[in-house]
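Protein in question kept underneath.
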Amino acid sequence: MPVTQRPETEALPEPLVLAFAPLDKRALGVATGLALGLLIFLATAMTLVREGGREVNLWLLANYLSGYSQTWPGAFIGFGWGLVMGFVAGWFIAFCRNFVIAASLFWIRTRNEMDQTQDFLDHI
């Protein structure tokens, strides 16, 4: 029983094309970096602006971010470090996701081609 192959001119549905489209590593890196940088900046700024109440201790960030302190210059240094760390994390996440999707699609296509052939040695 021969297997009918799908014509190459038939396009995939739009949701599938979008689901398997690769992520832009630079765009995800910039977006993640800005989000993390703003989070560190705003957390530091809120502790500096707020008077009284419970104090949030962000001094542990100084162990990880060189030059950071709970001051206004430290808030900008924290923003810079957050931008760099977030960019690297976002870029790496997009890279890993793109690699896993590409490897999965390659494996699925190869397995499909092997299933469609009657004799694998004739296919080689």
